[in-house]
Design a protein that fits this description.
The complex is a heterodimer of chains A (72) and B (564). Helix content of chain A is 58%, strand content 0%. Chain A has 72 residues and is mainly alpha-helical. The two termini of chain A are 35 Å apart. In chain B, β19 and β20 form a beta hairpin. The mean pLDDT of chain B is 91. The chains are: A mainly alpha (72), B alpha/beta (564).
Chain lengths: 72, 564
Amino acid sequence: MEEPKSEKRYEDSFEFPLWRLVKQRAEKDDISYVEASKKVVPEYVKTIKYRDIDFENASIEKRVKEKAKLTE
Amino acid sequence: MALEQLVDKIIKTDVLVIGGGIAGCPAAIKAAEHGLDVTIVEKSKIERSGSAGQGIDHYGIFPRDGITKMELLRRWEAYQSRFNGDGRFGDPNIIYKYYDSAFWALEELEKMGIPMKWDDGEFYWMPHGRYGGVNRIMLRVHWQNIKPYMAGVLKESGVNVLNRIMIVDLLTNNDKIVGATAINTRTGEFIIIKAKAVIIATGLFARCYDPETPLFWKYKFRYHWCPATVSGDGWATAYRSGAELANMDITGWHFRARDDLTLSFGNLNLNDGIAGKFLTWKGEEFIFANAHKYHELEQNGKTPIYQTLEHLPDDYHKRMEVAYVDERLISFKIAEDRGFNPRTHWYELMPNKPLNFITASGISIDENFKASAKGLYAIGDCAAGFHSCGHAVVSGLLVGDSINTYVAEAGDLAVDEAQVKSQKQVALAPLAVKKGTEPMELECAIRYICERYVGQFKSEGKMREGLKRLASLRRVFLPSLMANNPHYLMRCLEVRNIMDLTEVHIKACLERMETRGNFIRLDYPEKDPSRDNMLTFQHIENGKMKLEIRQVPELKPEYARERK
């Protein structure tokens, strides 16, 4: 029998970009992951469209419409 | 024998807070602000204990962005009914009070110095998929370190903080709660804490059913919603002291991802407002499955079922990474190790089955969070129907802000030595057992009873058999629990609590002779109209459990007026 990880929805090797940054920072500054995340996250957050209301609304409403087509 | 000779330490305080989570800490801090002498005990260590121990990525539900308090209440009731069927399952006045106090609590948290704002210095309001649609009614927060923050504020507030303290039982003087007995889980000291008022804030109860994880023994403490060790300590001690429990027939029902350790709250269900997709194993999408729908899927060979985030825009996948940091940093490593890339993975959901007591159960409270025993309060997940991080903080602050009135009138009541002696005997007995039963062995046996004889499809015969088996475990194995050290004494006390609450649970289910929502009795397949808006309450009277069915209160007219 095949192991679950041989299935295409499991990936043998992948990385979370933010986690990679946290680990790199922790190693560089010789600090814990918790401390490193305090330094890395504020920069990472700037690359995310948190205040783009139009983008958010469009993304959310697209999903709301998709769900509306399904019946419970 | 004098009390001093009976115990290792006696502590006197105005207010004893049991449980140092995000309900207990604000309660203690606020009570201390009123000049009260406050002691908080925590069986773990406050800096990283409880539901919020690893962090939180969201906070509260607020009446804003076009959603009124009454509309939130309506949606809360609709959400309850989605699982529990027609009718009301909690006191609407208490829930209304939560929404009514949400902004006050936010100000209080800011005064304490708790970080509430986003990186740009403004609040970041996120939509709540279940309650608000696109309306932004929930705060997205960076609360990876919320517990260290709260621990710091406790220290500054002059609260007496006692870590590694496990409560054995409450102490009573006639009908009043006058303190508690406890053990130190490192030194084994047996302690009395005399208090004018006691606030219970130990989270909810879950460990009579199997957890989500299919992994082996060492992970078997892990549940979601929310803390890792939800043994119902507060519920059980309150119950044994004579306080009333509510809704112990109503178990929490929800899809939960197996391998839950890899996920934070923001993922799968909410995703900053974009709901995850439910899929059958063949990839057919469906919206939601209550117990009946899940059963239908199972019968038609469409299970296992999955949830996926494949449809999220790239920006939202990045948001979820930030949510990992805020709520559970270890999630990154576990997901990578197991091959769960959120952009492609289908997360297996566990069968829709009783799991915990999240929706409406707990210590029965009035609108001021007073339990039925005098001098006893319940907040956060301990309070029936009050289950979320927002509820926890708000209830803690409200009780902390008002408990001085009770304390001023409480007087200094004596502690019953015989009661202390009996509690000490129960607590320390496992130390004397050399070849006995491991706490987890007994706990798994209790879980087996709930899974096999209660579970999703209930019937009188099965539950009576379950009760018999539970009684047998109590008679034979509870006295044989062994503890090699004080830490294991805590585990033994937890199992005792789990066993007591399991009995309460089964008896509540046995009495409810109907099928409604996710409560399924195979021998009573129809709804009983006489149970509409009626709840089950249980307490101990003269050593025996007493069960009552009472109506859910109506919403007060002054609140209801807002509806119009």
